[in-house]
Amino acid sequence: MTQPRIWMNGELLDPERAVVSVFDHGMLVGDGVFETVKAAHGEPFALTRHLRRLARSAAGLGLPEPDHDGLAQGTLEVLAAAPKWPLARIRITYTSGPGPLGSDRGDAGPTVSIIAAEQSPLPATADVTVTPWPRNERGALAGLKTTSYAENALALAYARERGGGEAILGNIADNLCEGTGSNVFVVRGGRLVTPPLSAGCLAGVTRELVLEWCGGEEEDVPLEEFARVDEAFLTSTTRDVQPIRAVDGTVLPAAPGPVTAKAMEAFAARAADLMDP
Fold first, then answer.
1. Nearest to 191 by CA among 170, 221, 171
2. Strand 32-40 to 87-95 pairing
């Protein structure tokens, strides 16, 4: 099967020509940021919000501001050259570019790539596993979507070994933080709640839309209470709103419960009407 073409530094290339230097700091030290964007039948969802967040993450690392319009056009070009998959994921990666073999950055300029692949539907519900390693909400990378993802890869592997479909991390204050690639909402006493950004979680685009479209409050949730909530769900670009069935093997009362079901319905309806909300 022919592989989709890849956009690199402003040019649409065949896969065999889309190469990155082994000196690129995205590879050497994880010095970069990225976004994952969903596309339905060739049309990207919430692209403007994703590109704005990419710019915020880049600024947080002290990288030059990405070319918003150029990346938007590049995304459309990649999708136009790809098969018309019912559901696809687009990966936009922006690194500091080639540099020396240490942490000092080079002066060659950023490396930018956009790739797309078909996305299979995720399970209707998720079982999650809480990891023993906390997220540092006071760290320099807190809230930034960087390519330094080894911690997430380790956490997800930990969850998979224990039957979990997603790993959940607390923070150093022992409050609920986030998943490796998702935000978490819980229902406590009929109230929809998600950890505040001060807890160290990523400002997820789907999280933001759920708060706007479905309501909810931001407040700290003690990690020890997580398995005792009435309902819970994950949000992410590829999951939309995905009910949590069990936490560390403890099955929640309902998946989805009534609040989660209402959020799922509201999100699906609004997302169908607004592809770039």
1. 221
2. antiparallel
Listed residue (89, 203, 230) closest to 144, CA to CA = 203
Strands 126-130 and 166-170: parallel
Q: What pLDDT was estimated at residue 211?
A: 98
Is the Cα dihedral 151, 157, 160, 161 positive or negative?
negative
pTM given for the model: 0.96
| Cα–Cα distance, 133 to 172 (Å, whole number) | 9
Count of CB atoms within 10 A of residue 258's CB?
12
Separation of first and last alpha carbons in the chain: 34
Helix (H) or strand (E) holding 251: strand 250-251
Q: Residue 231 has which token pair?
A: 């309902």
**Position 112, amino acid:** V
Contacts of 176 by beta carbon, 8 Å cutoff, 6+ apart = 168, 170, 184, 186, 195, 199, 220, 221, 222, 223, 226
At which residue do the structure tokens 């976004």 appear? 35
**Is residue 272 pLDDT above 90, yes or no?**
yes
